[in-house]
Amino acid sequence: MKILGIDPGFAITGYSVITYEGNKFKLIESGAVNTSKDMPFEDRLACIYDKVTDLIKEYSPDYISVEELFFNNNVTTAIGVAQGRGAVLIAASKNKVPIFEYTPLQVKQAVVGYGRADKKQVSQMVKAILNLDAVPKLDDITDSMAVGICHAHSYNVLSRGLK
Known about the structure:
Mean pLDDT: 92
Largest sheet: 5 strands, mixed
Number of strands: 5
Structural class: alpha/beta
Strand content: 15-25%
Shape: globular
Low-confidence stretches: none
Distance between the termini: 20 Å
């Protein structure tokens, strides 16, 4: 199975394309969509939509796995991130790729085995699972890998009929 993992945002949207076959993961591509605060907001969203659409066309993922919105206090930032998520979801829908969404707690549980794991623990497990030489410099990229891994583990469980 090929998964496009997305950690949505409006300034930085992390993405990764991973495969999962025979209980083995392989990283195909990863990176980030960076948008400038000087761009009109609608152009930032269009940039995210266009990049996700390009990734779908280039890699033909079977599934898109997206992290659900989580925020503490900054509602303004949360609204922007939600709109960035919307651009990702529309790109997936328009290209007919099934979308699966996971909370940060679910992602951490799937990757580390503990829903309250910290960023460092998640990063180290992503590095080990994907057999990377180093942890990506941007947390957004690491998080996109983690959400992709989460989907592979979750889908594996669902496809066996377990709950």
